[in-house]
Amino acid sequence: MTALLYLQFGFGQLPPVFGEEYNDKAQHSEMIKTYLTPQRIVWQSDDSIESMQNAESLLKKGNGQVAVNEENLFRLISKADKKPAILLDYGKQIHGGIKISAGIRADKAPVKLRLRFGESVGEAMSDIGGKQNATNEHSLRDFIIEVPWLGSVEVGETGFRFLRVDVVDAGIDLPIKSIEAAFVYRDIPYLGSFESNDERLNEIWITGAYTVQLNMQNFLWDGIKRDRLVWVGDMHPEVMTINTVFGNHEIVNKSLDLARDQHPLPQWMNGISSYSMWWLLIHENIYNYHGDLAYLKEQETYMIGLLDQLGTFIDKDNKEILNGHRFLDWPTSEKPEAIHAGLQAMMVMTFEAGSEMMAILGKNDLQLKYEKVAKQLKKHRPKDITTKQAASLMALANLHDAEKVNKEILTKDGVQRMSTFYGYYILEAMAKAKDYNGALRVIRDYWGGMLDLGATTFWEDFDVLDVANSGRIDELIPANNFDIHGDFGEYCYVGYRHSLCHGWASGPTSWLSQHVLGINVLEGGEKVKIDPHLGDLEWAKGSFPTKYGVLKVSHKRNADGTIKTEIDAPEGLTLIN
């Protein structure tokens, strides 16, 4: 399955051919540009033929080539008191821009059009600034262009699903053949898959995969509208999704190396101490999945320097005292006790991972050194932890009992006070507590809650308390409803600045493959342990990319409650049941 198939045909529908779109692909490159027609007209300024004609023609697939003799084209006709506008929906969130092809007309002067891209209908209908905080930050999404006579213009590079087009000047009669989305993405196959008897979970799995794929641009970005940067902490859930869906991909190494080279020690990556720790934890993950010893050796000098630097930020009571920006995620950013608890847990996990990496590299003295530091750090156990984010890390680091944390904190108030970033670690902690049914409920309610509001990719942030009386992102908002995109948000994601395609929100994709399908990769990808947990599901099946090829598994619950498992493993892969 590819991004184009997902985009055009939906979930689980793989047509044998797709020749209706045309594309411009660089030879031997994964990056591809494909032109897409709008799926529907959401809104137009008026229905009179004096302002707008043949709008439905925009929904017909074309060939992108203008001609001198075309009839019945879409026409925008403006007067001093009436300047027409139209809002188009391209069906799903994409990355790229717009190509507008104009027909022949009497006046050969270029015509000015205002374009407003939006991840939601509300954003595409907004003006820059104001209470709802629409911006042109990181990528331009609201600007004026000139469309040539009998020709095409292609502009824009952002994340969007919706486009509003307005005529700027009066006295214009502009025939338009097409307004196509120029969809730019990495054309790679979905080697991993997940299916079950629960279509909601199936949709969540593929949405997480697609969210990350859109962010696999020049580097592995956090978001395709905002920030379009390599944030190393954000990368951890993204890399787990790439491991699960696309396998060993060069964009991960490229992005990790960029972060390393841009932040020579003693700098913290992105200015955040926890993000330097995530860098090392990602290296542990990708080695465990892919076993690339040569690449790990390239990190040896920096990795040892980083671990030794981290070791200087531990006080006499074995408590972390990290400097720099002390950050876990935004919802905990004003809670120092939660940040400390999370950083203490991360220090434990980082030194344990460092010890493991040193053993692989044959540095036995450093293996013992970092193992000793991890044990010392465990002697300090932060107390009075109430946030789900910090509690989940404490459970994963074995600083608190996972079952107790799950019962007293993680399951309290359902999916309130979740975050899309740390939601992944909350799920991981629930799995450690063996609460698989609870974790599946969280996935359905929290990530499914975004789908219920029209999401086709997962968001930078989502607060379920904002859902009450809020409209969908793919509809005009009634006057008595809230706009889930424009009316909410805190910190960096106030209003329309909020990114609705953020890779750190993809956690359920790797979680479902690891814990429901039970695919646990071990020993540098040489072995896989199959340990399924169906929870309340009747069956689940899927595939997983390994270093030896694609592994396929299928699990079905028998009448007596036992699980029947079928496995198709590539040659060379060792299985552990």
Automatic annotation (TrEMBL):
Glycosyl hydrolase family 78 alpha-rhamnosidase N-terminal domain mapped to chain residues: 78-171
Gene3D superfamilies named among the record's database cross-references: 1.50.10.10, Maltose phosphorylase, domain 3
Domain called Alpha-L-rhamnosidase C-terminal: residue spans: 527-574
Residue stretches making up the Alpha-L-rhamnosidase six-hairpin glycosidase domain: 191-516
GO biological-process terms attached to the record: carbohydrate metabolic process
PANTHER family: ALPHA-L-RHAMNOSIDASE SIX-HAIRPIN GLYCOSIDASE DOMAIN-CONTAINING PROTEIN, C, PUTATIVE (AFU_ORTHOLOGUE AFUA_3G02880)-RELATED
Name assigned to this protein: Alpha-L-rhamnosidase-like protein
Source organism (scientific name): Arenibacter echinorum
Organism taxonomic ancestry: Bacteria, Pseudomonadati, Bacteroidota, Flavobacteriia, Flavobacteriales
